């Protein structure tokens, strides 16, 4: 009842428009045997996106079948430049699909209990192999 928020200015961009969704970055199967590829993809995409502006957040949805990453910029204009530049560009033999986030679509994929246990067993084997 007492919550007051000023009306947005005409032409003012929404906060969610600072986020960009990049699809087809990876295949979820890549990470089953080589977890280090998650870091490789994150670093590579972050380096490319920092050319457009300050990246405040980068999230990889490793279980999503479309190979989705979400990048949040400090400014809306940086997100616009990222979409214009990286859309339909090749990345490791894959054609990227880059769009501005609509603010509603969710990309987190929940795994079942069995899938989680299997993943943790593989992770333990991976850690034990380094010793």
Automatic annotation (TrEMBL):
GO terms for molecular function: RNA binding. It comes from Halocaridina rubra. The lineage of its organism: Eukaryota, Metazoa, Ecdysozoa, Arthropoda, Crustacea. GO terms for cellular component: U2 snRNP; U2-type spliceosomal complex. The gene is HTATSF1_1. Coiled coil: none annotated. Belongs to the HTATSF1 family. InterPro entries: Nucleotide-bd_a/b_plait_sf, RBD_domain_sf, RRM_dom, TatSF1-like. Keywords: mRNA processing, mRNA splicing, Repeat, RNA-binding. SUPFAM superfamilies: RNA-binding domain, RBD (SSF54928). Residues 18-103 form the RRM domain. GO terms for biological process: mRNA splicing, via spliceosome. This is HIV Tat-specific factor 1.
